[in-house]
Amino acid sequence: MNTSALNIGQNHDGTVCVVTLSGRIDSTNASDLMNQLTNLITSGEKSIVVDLGAVLYLTSAAFRALLVATDEAERNAAKFVLCSLGGHVRELFEMGGLLEVFTVHPSRAEAVAQLGLSKSTT
What we know:
- By secondary structure, the chain is of the alpha/beta class.
- The protein has a single domain (7-120), classed as STAS domain (Transcription Regulator spoIIAA), CATH 3.30.750.24.
- The chain has helices at 30-42, 60-75, 87-95, 108-120; strands at residues 7-13, 16-25, 47-58, 79-83, 104-105.
- Helix 1 packs parallel to helix 2.
């Protein structure tokens, strides 16, 4: 397995769509990520968690893909959150001042629980 490639997995935990990313996100694959996330949102997903726990590295192209997806979620009244930022990836979010831009949960379980609660109370 090529650990530098981006792998995108997707499943549902109740009403929450969980997108699991692993590998590297850079200019060669960020548009694929952006397209997949925006397609999920425009197809009607209302609660999306992006798990970055297995991401080794990301570039500004990855941030752009996530920002575009966040904007698309807002336009479609969807919840879009990130989880499991660790190590070098978290440092990059901190350096870019992006922890305040995204909703970030420490773990997938916490993100899913929070979105599941907000879904049932609306």
